[in-house]
Protein backbone atom coordinates (compact mmCIF):
# COMPACT_ATOMS: atom_id res chain seq x y z
CA UNK A 1 0.00 0.00 0.00
CA UNK A 2 1.32 3.40 -0.94
CA UNK A 3 2.09 5.75 2.04
CA UNK A 4 -0.22 8.47 0.71
CA UNK A 5 -3.18 6.08 0.52
CA UNK A 6 -2.56 5.07 4.16
CA UNK A 7 -2.62 8.73 5.10
CA UNK A 8 -5.86 9.21 3.15
CA UNK A 9 -7.52 6.31 4.95
CA UNK A 10 -6.32 7.66 8.28
CA UNK A 11 -7.68 11.15 7.52
CA UNK A 12 -11.00 9.69 6.38
CA UNK A 13 -11.35 7.47 9.47
CA UNK A 14 -10.23 10.11 11.99
CA UNK A 15 -13.50 12.15 12.10
CA UNK A 16 -15.58 8.99 12.47
CA UNK A 17 -13.33 7.71 15.28
CA UNK A 18 -13.50 11.08 17.06
CA UNK A 19 -17.30 11.14 16.73
CA UNK A 20 -17.66 7.61 18.11
CA UNK A 21 -15.29 8.36 21.00
CA UNK A 22 -17.22 11.56 21.79
CA UNK A 23 -20.58 9.77 21.80
CA UNK A 24 -19.28 7.03 24.08
CA UNK A 25 -17.84 9.44 26.64
CA UNK A 26 -20.02 12.56 26.50
CA UNK A 27 -23.42 11.07 27.17
CA UNK A 28 -24.14 9.62 30.60
CA UNK A 29 -25.03 5.98 30.81
CA UNK A 30 -27.78 4.95 33.18
CA UNK A 31 -26.50 2.69 35.90
CA UNK A 32 -28.16 -0.67 36.20
CA UNK A 33 -28.96 -0.12 39.88
CA UNK A 34 -29.93 3.09 41.60
CA UNK A 35 -28.49 3.87 45.00
CA UNK A 36 -31.23 3.80 47.63
CA UNK A 37 -30.64 4.49 51.28
CA UNK A 38 -32.65 2.22 53.58
CA UNK A 39 -35.73 3.29 55.53
CA UNK A 40 -36.74 2.69 59.14
CA UNK A 41 -37.90 -0.76 58.05
CA UNK A 42 -34.27 -1.93 58.03
CA UNK A 43 -33.65 -1.09 61.70
CA UNK A 44 -32.99 -3.99 64.08
CA UNK A 45 -36.00 -5.36 65.96
CA UNK A 46 -34.71 -3.99 69.29
CA UNK A 47 -34.57 -0.39 67.98
CA UNK A 48 -36.64 2.11 69.99
CA UNK A 49 -37.96 3.53 66.70
CA UNK A 50 -40.28 0.51 66.45
CA UNK A 51 -41.90 1.56 69.74
CA UNK A 52 -42.22 5.25 68.83
CA UNK A 53 -43.34 4.80 65.23
CA UNK A 54 -44.16 1.18 64.33
CA UNK A 55 -44.95 0.52 60.68
CA UNK A 56 -48.32 -0.79 61.86
CA UNK A 57 -49.25 2.52 63.50
CA UNK A 58 -52.21 2.75 61.11
CA UNK A 59 -54.11 -0.32 59.96
CA UNK A 60 -54.31 -1.09 56.25
CA UNK A 61 -50.61 -0.52 55.60
CA UNK A 62 -48.58 -1.86 52.72
CA UNK A 63 -45.39 -1.28 50.78
CA UNK A 64 -45.28 -0.54 47.07
CA UNK A 65 -42.24 -0.54 44.80
CA UNK A 66 -42.20 2.62 42.70
CA UNK A 67 -39.48 3.60 40.19
CA UNK A 68 -37.56 5.69 42.76
CA UNK A 69 -37.88 3.24 45.65
CA UNK A 70 -40.22 1.49 48.07
CA UNK A 71 -43.01 3.59 49.61
CA UNK A 72 -44.93 2.80 52.80
CA UNK A 73 -48.59 3.78 52.64
CA UNK A 74 -51.82 3.21 54.54
CA UNK A 75 -55.45 3.16 53.35
CA UNK A 76 -57.91 3.59 56.19
CA UNK A 77 -61.62 4.28 56.40
CA UNK A 78 -64.65 3.01 54.50
CA UNK A 79 -63.84 1.89 50.95
CA UNK A 80 -66.78 3.86 49.56
CA UNK A 81 -65.85 7.01 51.50
CA UNK A 82 -64.89 10.31 49.95
CA UNK A 83 -61.17 10.12 49.16
CA UNK A 84 -58.57 12.31 50.84
CA UNK A 85 -54.75 12.24 50.79
CA UNK A 86 -52.75 13.50 53.77
CA UNK A 87 -49.18 14.65 53.03
CA UNK A 88 -46.79 15.16 55.95
CA UNK A 89 -43.97 17.70 56.17
CA UNK A 90 -40.20 17.45 56.27
CA UNK A 91 -39.61 16.61 59.93
CA UNK A 92 -42.29 14.13 60.96
CA UNK A 93 -43.53 11.27 58.75
CA UNK A 94 -47.16 10.12 58.41
CA UNK A 95 -47.51 9.67 62.17
CA UNK A 96 -48.11 13.44 62.33
CA UNK A 97 -51.70 12.74 61.25
CA UNK A 98 -52.38 10.40 64.24
CA UNK A 99 -55.09 12.69 65.65
CA UNK A 100 -56.52 13.90 62.33
CA UNK A 101 -56.78 10.65 60.34
CA UNK A 102 -59.10 8.83 62.81
CA UNK A 103 -61.45 11.84 62.89
CA UNK A 104 -61.62 11.87 59.09
CA UNK A 105 -62.31 8.12 59.10
CA UNK A 106 -65.10 8.54 61.67
CA UNK A 107 -66.58 11.21 59.39
CA UNK A 108 -66.74 8.68 56.55
CA UNK A 109 -63.59 9.55 54.57
CA UNK A 110 -61.30 7.03 52.88
CA UNK A 111 -57.82 8.28 53.84
CA UNK A 112 -54.51 7.67 52.07
CA UNK A 113 -51.42 8.37 54.18
CA UNK A 114 -47.85 7.69 53.13
CA UNK A 115 -44.26 8.44 54.02
CA UNK A 116 -42.47 10.74 51.61
CA UNK A 117 -39.23 9.55 50.04
CA UNK A 118 -36.44 9.82 52.59
CA UNK A 119 -38.80 9.81 55.57
CA UNK A 120 -40.23 7.12 57.83
CA UNK A 121 -40.62 3.73 56.17
CA UNK A 122 -40.16 4.92 52.57
CA UNK A 123 -36.81 4.52 50.84
CA UNK A 124 -34.44 7.45 50.38
CA UNK A 125 -33.34 7.30 46.74
CA UNK A 126 -30.09 8.99 45.81
CA UNK A 127 -31.56 11.61 43.51
CA UNK A 128 -32.59 15.25 43.44
CA UNK A 129 -35.23 15.96 46.06
CA UNK A 130 -37.47 18.46 44.32
CA UNK A 131 -41.15 19.05 43.62
CA UNK A 132 -41.13 16.62 40.69
CA UNK A 133 -39.89 13.76 42.86
CA UNK A 134 -42.65 14.23 45.43
CA UNK A 135 -45.50 15.00 43.02
CA UNK A 136 -44.63 12.00 40.88
CA UNK A 137 -44.44 9.84 44.02
CA UNK A 138 -48.02 10.79 44.90
CA UNK A 139 -49.32 10.42 41.32
CA UNK A 140 -47.84 6.91 41.07
CA UNK A 141 -49.13 6.00 44.52
CA UNK A 142 -52.66 7.14 43.59
CA UNK A 143 -52.40 5.06 40.43
CA UNK A 144 -51.29 2.06 42.50
CA UNK A 145 -54.30 2.32 44.85
CA UNK A 146 -56.54 2.99 41.82
CA UNK A 147 -57.67 6.45 42.81
CA UNK A 148 -58.50 8.75 39.92
CA UNK A 149 -59.17 11.82 42.12
CA UNK A 150 -58.91 12.87 45.76
CA UNK A 151 -58.96 15.88 48.04
CA UNK A 152 -55.38 16.79 48.95
CA UNK A 153 -54.20 18.04 52.36
CA UNK A 154 -50.61 18.98 53.16
CA UNK A 155 -48.92 20.31 56.28
CA UNK A 156 -45.68 22.32 56.22
CA UNK A 157 -43.58 21.08 53.28
CA UNK A 158 -46.49 18.75 52.50
CA UNK A 159 -48.50 21.88 51.71
CA UNK A 160 -45.89 22.87 49.15
CA UNK A 161 -46.10 19.38 47.68
CA UNK A 162 -49.92 19.60 47.61
CA UNK A 163 -49.77 22.95 45.77
CA UNK A 164 -47.20 21.65 43.27
CA UNK A 165 -49.23 18.44 42.82
CA UNK A 166 -52.43 20.36 42.08
CA UNK A 167 -50.57 22.47 39.50
CA UNK A 168 -48.86 19.49 37.85
CA UNK A 169 -51.74 16.98 38.06
CA UNK A 170 -54.96 19.05 38.33
CA UNK A 171 -57.08 16.19 36.95
CA UNK A 172 -56.12 14.04 39.98
CA UNK A 173 -57.38 16.62 42.48
CA UNK A 174 -61.01 16.73 43.59
CA UNK A 175 -62.54 20.11 44.31
CA UNK A 176 -60.67 20.73 47.59
CA UNK A 177 -57.04 21.25 48.54
CA UNK A 178 -55.95 22.32 52.03
CA UNK A 179 -52.55 23.78 52.84
CA UNK A 180 -51.72 23.85 56.55
CA UNK A 181 -48.76 26.05 57.62
CA UNK A 182 -47.52 25.55 54.09
CA UNK A 183 -43.89 26.09 53.21
CA UNK A 184 -41.25 24.89 50.82
CA UNK A 185 -41.29 23.57 47.28
CA UNK A 186 -43.32 26.47 45.91
CA UNK A 187 -41.11 28.05 43.27
CA UNK A 188 -41.08 31.71 42.35
CA UNK A 189 -42.89 30.95 39.09
CA UNK A 190 -45.72 29.00 40.77
CA UNK A 191 -47.41 31.55 43.10
CA UNK A 192 -48.67 33.94 40.36
CA UNK A 193 -50.85 31.10 39.15
CA UNK A 194 -52.58 31.03 42.53
CA UNK A 195 -52.14 34.55 43.92
CA UNK A 196 -52.29 37.83 42.04
CA UNK A 197 -49.02 39.78 42.38
CA UNK A 198 -49.08 42.84 44.63
CA UNK A 199 -48.68 46.09 42.67
CA UNK A 200 -48.09 49.56 44.07
Structure description:
32% of the residues lie in helices and 22% in strands. Residues 190-200 have low confidence and may be disordered. It is elongated, with a radius of gyration of 24 Å. The protein contains six helices and eight strands. It is an alpha/beta fold. A hairpin with a 2-residue loop joins β2 (61-66) and β3. The strands form two sheets. A six-stranded mixed sheet has the order 2-3-5-4-7-8. Strands 1-6 form a two-stranded antiparallel sheet. It has helices at 3-26, 49-52, 100-106, 131-144, 157-168, 191-194, and strands spanning 36-37, 61-66, 69-76, 82-87, 109-114, 124-125, 150-155, 173-180. The chain has a single domain (50-194), classed as Rossmann fold, CATH 3.40.50. The longest helix has 24 residues, at 3-26.
Averaged pLDDT, please?
85
CATH level 1 class label: Alpha Beta
**Major β-sheet annotation:** 6 strands, mixed
Structural class: alpha/beta
CATH homologous superfamily annotation: Alpha/Beta hydrolase fold, catalytic domain
Distance between the termini: 82 Å
Overall body shape:
elongated
- The helicity comes to 25-40%
Q: Largest beta sheet: what is the strand line-up? A: 2-3-5-4-7-8
Summed up, the helix count is 6
Outline:
This protein is 32% helix and 22% strand. It has 200 residues and is of the alpha/beta class. Helix 3 links the parallel strand 4 and strand 5.
Amino acid sequence: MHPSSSLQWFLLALPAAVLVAYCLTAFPHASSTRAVHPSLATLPNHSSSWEIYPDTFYKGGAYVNLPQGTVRHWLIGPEDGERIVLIHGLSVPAIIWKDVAPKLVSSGFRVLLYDLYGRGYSDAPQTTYDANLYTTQLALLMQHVRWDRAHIVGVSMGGGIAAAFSAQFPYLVSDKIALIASSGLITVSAPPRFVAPHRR
